[in-house]
Amino acid sequence: MRQAWAALAVVVAGAVQAQAQVPEPQGFHGEPYRSETPVTLAGARVIGAAEAMELHARGVPFVDVLPRTARPEGLPEGTLWNAPPHLSIPGATWLHGTGYERLSPVEQARLAEGLARLSGGDKAAPLVIFCKRDCWMSWNAAKRAVALGYRGVIWFPDGIEGWQEQGGGLEPVSPATP
Predict the structure, then answer these.
(1) What pTM, to 2 d.p., does this model score?
(2) How many domains does the chain have?
(3) Phi and psi torsions of 4, nearest 5°
(4) Is residue 5 situated within a structural domain?
(5) Phi and psi (nearest 5°) for 8?
(6) 3-class DSSP state for residue 101?
């Protein structure tokens, strides 16, 4: 009897876990951007932190898509404000703000031009796209890269948190310029 209850508990736990998985949406995901993401991305390979470290060591380009820190509202006019440094995976290219649900023409161009530059024009070249754990921005940007015809898209959903947990450090990066 005890074995039957144990087997039932395993089945129920598996069913609950299966229900908890977030399905891939048809389009792009908007607010809230910081929420549970799917474990898959059609057209892309999904990796964990250990593989991210291996790819980084081999020189595969890493693309950070987090937005810039916004100037705080309510600052008096003329107040000097410096954005805090943006910390990222060493050597990553910061294509800021390219993971939103909807992109402005400038953001879309930043993503397209950045991917073309990093891939050397080779749409089969591997590109690792990331931001933070449980952040839809990297999922959206990776989905856009796939839609742009890139076949070497690698999505790193654990992002900078997974990188640090694997023992990797972070460094300040500047936004990519066209």
Answers:
(1) 0.86
(2) 1
(3) -65, -45
(4) no
(5) -65, -40
(6) coil
